[in-house]
Amino acid sequence: MKTGTVYTETVVHAAPEQFLADAPYQLAIVSLDGGGRLTVRVSGARVQIGDAVELAEERDGIAFFRKKP
Amino acid sequence: MKAVAVVGIGKTAFGAFPEWDLRSLAVEAGQKCLADAHVNYSKIEAFYLGNFAGPSFVGQNHLAPYIASGLGITGVPCTRFEAACASSGSAFFHAVSSVAAGMYDLVLVGGVEKMTSQSTPKVTEILAGAGDVSGEVKAGATFPALFAMIARRHMFQYGTTREQLAAVAVKNHGNGAKNPLAHMRKTITMEQALAGKPIAEPLTVYDCSLISDGAAAVMIAPLERAAEFTDRPVKILGIAQTSDYVALDAKEDVTTFRAVRAAGEKAYKMAGVTARDIQFAELHDCFTIAEIIAMEDLGFVPKGEGGPYALAGKTCLNGERPVNASGGLKSKGHPVGATGVGQICDIVMQIRGDAGELQLARHSLGLAENLGGSGATAVVTVLGAA
User: Fold this and answer.
1) Quick one: which of B107, B287, B296, B386 has the most CB atoms within 10 Å?
2) B293 versus A17: which is more confidently predicted?
3) CA atoms of B369 and B334, how far apart (whole Å)
4) Could you state, in order of their start, the residue ranges of all structural domains in chain B?
């Protein structure tokens, strides 16, 4: 399972046309434990820089990460 | 390499102009520039155009000859440059390079964007095309979101505060209110800036530049011929364009723009100056955090001290190093493809002493920084009185 740490994040209020229905949504850049970084959506509780996260699901080619319990 | 000078400038106002289409804006700026340089269109040897997304915003391609012919210019190379928000900075860099190399003498450089005919969500989507659409954009990143993530990390690493970001917005709105060509000529208070509608946390609407229509143009020539066109030439002392990864998540440290650092160092070296010598600057404040980071990357302040420097008023009109006396992208407006050349016009106006209410006390050595995307293209130009 993909895991990592939140490098930075934001909550998007003004969404582009194709994601209008999702707003507000949280976006994060995650430093993956295996190396490299990935821009992901956050599902569930909001995360902060430094939080440990894991892959929750992939939907429409978008990775959704959530806070590790 | 020949020394190159700016011998003419022309700008439209920036704003929302339903009655002006893309070509009429660009032609207006070009005609003003030709008039300023006292040059007939038939003397122009090449036309360089900066435009980010005319095809997406208004459905028009083949823009350089389309606009040049509107000015009467045909039979010469006319080329469009696209480098996101640094499109016309890039056009300018390549035009200067060609004149310096001796290819041409009289070259017109334009920049234009027509944005306000689209809805804000559609504009947001088009602008996102300056990012990595197979990665960050697919996940839902907008440009405000990318710069919000940059701001969050800058706050985390350096203790930058919301007040420091807001100070940039308050200053730039104050300056823009005095600029007759600015899009949003109104002052804002710190309280307003802090209470703005959230766009991408921690950025509010007051941290974001405007969606604008507008055009700008400059004419360049070898310095040795400048006196034929103007008695107030402005010399291009140093110029550099550099690049970096397009995706924000590919950058090792998002609190710095490596491309800006590199372009700044090259431009300073070419000009034979240091950051300390720069008296005033037009910096690419697409978002408030970008102005703070640019000051750090260009060596105006040590890393992490951009925020306190802005909050202390050091970058105000009467501060030790005025930044964005024009009002910046924040208040003057950000017609993406016009921004880079527009910055050059603003620096030239200051050096000539033509900046009216915004005229700075020290105005003989200025710098313009034009940033593309989240830092994948940077153009830095150092200009001085000839």
Assistant:
1) B287
2) B293
3) 14
4) 4-118+212-235, 130-210+238-385
Q: Which of B165, B253, B242 is nearest to B208 (CA)?
A: B165
Asked if A7 reaches chain B (Cβ–Cβ under 8 Å), the answer is: yes
Q: What is the pLDDT of residues B55-107, one digit of tens each?
A: 999 999 999 999 999 999 999 999 999 999 999 999 999 999 999 999 999 99
The DSSP code sequence of A15-63 is: --GGGGGG-SEEEEEEEETTSSEEEEEE-SS---TT-EEEEEEEETTEE
pLDDT value at residue B215: 98
Q: Inform me whether the C-beta atom of residue A29 falls under 8 Å from chain B C-beta atoms.
A: yes
User: Which band of pLDDT confidence, cut at 50, 70 and 90, is reported for residue A17?
Assistant: confident
**Shortest CA distance to B33 belongs to which of B23, B44, B22?**
B44
Contact A27 B254 (CB under 8 A): no
Contacting residues for B45 by C-beta, under 8 A, at least 6 apart = B76, B104, B105, B106, B107
User: What was the ipTM of the complex prediction?
Assistant: 0.98
Q: What distance in Å separates residue B66's CA from the closest CA in chain A?
A: 30
Angstroms from A59 CA to nearest CA on chain B: 10
Superfamily of domain B130-210+238-385: Thiolase/Chalcone synthase (3.40.47.10)
Question: In this structure, what CATH number is given to the domain that contains residue A43?
Answer: 2.40.50
As beta bridge partners, residue B83 has B85
Token pair for B111: 């920049």
Provide the pLDDT for residue A18: 87
Written out in words, the top-level CATH class of the domain with range B4-118+212-235 is alpha beta
Give the domain extent around A49.
3-67
pLDDT for position B207 = 98
What pLDDT, on a 0 to 100 scale, did the predictor assign at position A1? 61
Region class of B3: left (phi > 0), else alpha (psi between -120 and 50), else beta: beta
Nearest to A17 by CA among B129, B56, B123: B123
State how beta strands A37-42 and A62-67 pair.
Answer: parallel
Determine whether the interchain pair A62/B139 forms a contact, defined as Cβ–Cβ distance below 8 Å.
Answer: yes
Which A residues, 33 through 62, put their C-beta within 8 Å of a C-beta on chain B?
Answer: 37-41, 49, 61-62
Contact between residue B181 and residue B14 where contact means Cβ atoms under 8 Å apart: yes
Q: Which residues of chain B have pLDDT under 70?
A: none
